[in-house]
Structures are given as structure tokens and as C-alpha cells.
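Predict structure. Input: MFS transporter superfamily, 432 residues.
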Amino acid sequence: MFFFSLLFFGRIISDCIPIGGKKRTPYLVISTVLSLVPWLVLGLDSTSRSSSLYLMIFLTVQNLGSAMADVVIDAMIAEAVRLEKASFAGDLQSVSWFAMAVGGVCGSLLGGYALSNLKIETIFLLFTVLPALQLLSCALVEEISANDEPLPELLDSNEFEEKSMMSNENFRDTSKSNTRRRKGQKKGKKGASNGKSETQKKQSKSLASQWFQSLKAATFGLGRAFKQPIILRPMAWFFIAHITVPNLSTVMFYYQTEVLQLDASFLGTARVVGWLGLMFGTFIYNRYLQDMTLRKSLLFAHIGLSITIILDMVLVSRANVGYGVSDKTMVLFGSALGDAINQLKFMPFLILSGRLCPPGIEGTLFALFMSINNLGNTVGSFMGAGLASLLGISSGSFENMFMGLAIQVFCTYIPVLFLFLIPKEATGVSAS
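Output follows.
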């Protein structure tokens, strides 16, 4: 929770306080450095690698940097989605997820090889290559100066803005007249010096006031945006969908390694197939399903997820062996199908929220959504751990695994009962 809160606060700062007139590139550089330095230190310093405290600190910083970079990029995509026509929204998100899937495939393949053939310090140093390339690529990012961008929409009332402007104008007029009186009374260098000091003070106060007003405006804008049914209700549904379905993936992993005797290299291959499934799901959604309503796509997604759990039940019951289907085939097919369906479930709301996000708080809104999503995932994992404990499922004891999966299938349809939270006619390209 602390990590999510820190990341969310950082996104508000990046949305409201530009560095050098820019809101994205400087924070992208900062997040990339946070991702790069820990791997470099761990690769060069054996003391850091052997200390659990140092490992925890460095890996936490590295994950914070990676998460910050991810949200900054999401904000940049949201800005591009809003500026482009609606027909390009799916293409931009699809290219982003497709690129991530390609990186995931390459990382899974190279990671398995590196783990088997290279020393750990060499692996840590190799981890610095991609952040270094990302740092260099920051120079290629084109960004409009924050001074040329409008303040966030939907922020606070017009009356408040008018009163604030009138108050600021009166303050400036009063300050100018007072300064003229002081300058008329002073002479020589001392008078010029005092005039310059007053100007610097006013500029400093003006900058601080702008930052405060920007933070205040972003907070109001986020609240107004979050209250929109097209954003609030799908967010609430996604959270409910996570916490009502116990996550047994960790237990299933132990079953695959201990009972089915699947080795680490094969599970790495399964992850590669999962990334390919994600790429396939992205393509299918962008090509054929953009005009489908959110309610219908989420209903079909949960039907598909229940099928993937039923496949796990077939695997646990060993029924697949009787039909001549190997365990590895079942695992590979289930991994690809599960990732493809999850992508079909996730894509429409990402595109829609990107289009509806008010200007200036793109990173904040995406950070909020991802924090809620990750919190739901965490709660779902705790629910899965509780269910496994209740049924006596643990390492070396999988007698009730079939029952646990059956309960998971049942729970998969609970979120369907809450689909009324999704606006009836909403799709990935419209918010009717």
C-alpha cells in the first residue's frame, strides 16, 4: 500500500510540477535512472548482493523506477489518444501492448538462457542494458512545453477560478504600486537592488502559487473525473472482479512443479507462449471487437476465464492423459488462452479511460486505476491463500486441489452479477 501511495503521489507531482518546462521527459529520465542504478550497483558490488537488506532496498528502488516509467508512458499514450481521432485510440494502445509482449517474449527466452549459463553478477549487469537504452531514447522524445498546455479541465468551479484570478490581479496591482512608492523614495544602487529583490520575491511567490494552484486544480480534476460514471463504475467493477475471485495461481505453480514434475525451463517456455497469447488477444480486440459493448466483452471474458480454470481441473484430475493429451500441451494451451482472454478484458477500459482522461492529469488517473487494479490483485491473492488454507492445500498436499478450482470457477461468475455497474452502451471507442 505504501508503494502504491508513493507512486500515486509521484504521478500527481509529475502532472502538476514541470521540470524545465516539461512534464513527461524529465520524470521519464528520473525513473529510468532509478531503474538503472540498482542493477549496476548489484552487478559491481558483491557486498550488496550478499545482504538481504541491501537487496530489498535496491530492488524496491528498481521496481519503483520501473513503475514510474510505466505510468509516465501510459500518460503519454493517453495524451496521444486524446489528441488523435478516436479511430486511432485502439491502434496506439495495441502498438504499446504489442511492443511489451515482444519484449516479454525476448526477455523470457534470454532470461532462461542467462539463468542457466551466466553468473548472477553478469546477469545484473546485463539488466542495465535496457534501462541505458531507454535513457538514451529519452533524447528522442518530443514534448510540448508545459507553458503552452492548458490547465486540466473539469477542475474546480468557474467562480473559484474567477475569484482567484481577480485576487491575483489585485495582489499584483498592489505590489506594483507599493514597489513604485518604494522606488521613488530610494536612490542609487540601494534602490535598484531593493527593486530587483522585490521582483525576485514576486516571481518566487508567483511560481509557488502556480504550483499550488496546479496541484489543487489536478486534485479537483481527478475527483471530478473519478466521479464520472464511465470511469468510476468500471473501476469499481474491476476491483470487485479481482476480490471476488480467489487467485490460486501460486498453488497451481507448485502443483505443476511438484506433482507434474515440470522443470523451470519448460515453465519459462509457457511464459513465452503466454506473451504470444497476449499479442494475439491485442490483435483480435483491435481488429474485431472495438465496437462491442463493455458489458458483452466482459461477460465473454469471464466465460473464457472459467474455461481456462476448467482446463486446470482437467489437468488436476488427470483426465487429459486418458485422451492422450500431454500435461505440457495442457499447460501451454492454458497459458496462451488465459493471457489472451485477460487482454481482451483489459483493453477496452484502457482505451476508453485514455480518451476520457482530462488534460493534465493523465498520469495521475492511470496511476489511480493501476493502483486500484493492483490492490484488487493483492486482495485476490490473499483470498486464494485463504481458500487454500481452508481446504488444506499446501506444498506436498494437493488432495483438495480439484475442489479449490471448482470453487474458483463458481466465483468467476460472481463479477457477472455486477455488470450493471458498466454503462450499458459503453464500448472501447465511445462512452454513450
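Confidence is low (pLDDT under 50) at residues 150-193.
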